[in-house]
Amino acid sequence: MKRTTGQDRSVTSKWRPATQAVRGGTWRSEQGETSEALFLTSGYSYDSAEEVAARFQGEAVGMVYSRFQNPSLAMLEERIALMEGAESCRVQASGMAAMTTALLCQLSAGDHIVAGRAAFGSCRWIVDNLFPRFGIEKTIVDARDNQAWEAAIRPNTKVFFFETPANPTMDVVDLEYVCGLARSRGIVSVVDNAFATAALQRPLEFGADVVAYSATKLMEGQGRVLLGAVCGSAEFINDVLLPFQRNTGPVASPFNAWVVLKGLETLGLRAHKQSENAMLVAKFLDGRGVRMLFPGLPGHPQHNLAARQMDKFGNIFSFVLKDRAQAFAMLNAMELIDISNNIGDSKSLACHPASTTHNNMGPEGRAEAGVEEGMLRLNVGLEDPDDLIEDLDQALAKAGL
Ligand SMILES: *Cc1c(COP(=O)(O)O)cnc(C)c1O
C-alpha cells in the first residue's frame, strides 16, 4: 500500500475543490490501480507481535480493526475533509448515525442543546425524544430568527444544532451570525449540511465548528447506499468524537464508503446542474402561481442571505398546494417524477412530508415546524428540465390547478 501524492497534505491542500473531489485522499496499492480499491476486510494481520503491540499502543501507524479504521473509509474521510476545508473527518453508517454521534459524543446529563425547529424528522426525534431520556435539556427555536438563538442560551448550553437550508420548509439560517454567537459563548455549533454539500456551501468558512452529513443524499448522488460523515477540528474528531465512535460502533461499510467515494468525483457537476434544473422548474411553478418555498427565487424573504452563503441554491425545494387531498392528487398524477421520500438522487423525486418524513411528529409538531398539509417537496434530478416542467404542468392540471 503506497501513499500517493494524493495523501500528502502539503501537496493536496493546495488543490482546488474540483481536484479534491476527484483525487483527494487517494491511496494506491502496489498494483497502481487508477480507481480507488475496495477493502472488504474486518481485520488485519501483522508481521510480528511487536508490530501489533506498537499499533495498539499508538506508537506505530497502521490499521488494527475495521471498527477503528479501514483503507476505503480512510480515503473517503480524507477526501471529504479536503473538500470541506476541515482538519479531520470520520464517516458513519448513515446520516442519522453521524448526527447522533456528533451530538452524543459531546453531550452529558445536565447539558442543554438549542436546535432549529425545521429539521429532518429523525433529527428532531433524537433532540425531542432521545436526549431527554438521558437528562439533556433542549430548546427549539425558529432558526431564521437570530435573536431567538441568543435568547435560548442558558449557562449549561453546550451545542447549537441546525440545518440550512432546512428540511422541508427550506428555512435558511444565518451561518455567520449563529455560529459566531455560539463561538463567543463557548458553545459548539453543529451544522447539518446535507442539502447543499461542500459543493455549494462550506459552513466552516462562516465559523461553524462541526459539519455533519447524510452522504446518502447529494454526496452519493444516485440513491444507492446510506452513509454519514462528521467534519471538524483534529482535536474535536480525535479527542471527542473518536472515543465515542470506536466504542459504540456506528461504523460505515467499506463498500458503501467506496460508492460514495466514486460519487464525490461527480458531485460538483451534479450539484451545479441539478441546481440549474431546480431553478428552471421552480420558476415555472412560480409562474403558475404556486406558493413556493425556495430561497433561490428572488421573491423569497431569505434570498439575499442564501445568496451570501451558497454558491448555488441547491436542487431541493418545497411548494404548498391547498390541502393534503390536492397534494396527493398532484403526486398521483406525475408520470415522470417518482413518488419517493429520498433526496439528492439524480432522478427527480417528490414527496408529501406531512404524511411521510414528518409523520411521526404529529399535527402539533408539524404545525410548530412549519410542515403544512398541502406541502410537497421536490428533489430535482438530472433529467431534461423541459420534461420535468411538462410533467408538472400536466400534474397541476389534473390536480385542478
Ligand atoms: C436524510 C437526512 C438525514 C439522515 O440521513 P440518513 O442517511 O437517511 O440516515 C439527516 N439530515 C438531513 C438534512 C437529511 O436530509
Structure keywords:
single chain, 401 residues, alpha/beta, Aspartate Aminotransferase, domain 2, Aspartate Aminotransferase, domain 1, 2 domains, seven-stranded mixed β-sheet, five-stranded mixed β-sheet, 39% helix, binds pyridoxal-5'-phosphate
Question: Would you summarize the structure shown here?
Answer:
It is built from 15 helices and 14 strands. It has helices at 9-12, 17-23, 49-56, 71-84, 95-104, 121-130, 146-152, 175-184, 234-248, 254-264, 267-287, 303-309, 324-333, 362-369, 385-398, and strands at residues 2-3, 27-28, 88-92, 112-116, 137-141, 157-163, 188-192, 210-214, 228-232, 291-293, 316-320, 338-339, 349-351, 375-379. The longest helix is centred in the last third of the chain and has 21 residues, at 267-287.
Going by helix content, strand content and strand pairing, the class is alpha/beta
- The total tally of domains equals 2
Could you give the order of the helices and strands? EHHEHHEHEHEHEHEEEHHHEHEHEEHEH
Largest sheet geometry: 7 strands, mixed
Strand order of the largest sheet: 3-9-8-7-6-4-5
Average pLDDT number: 96
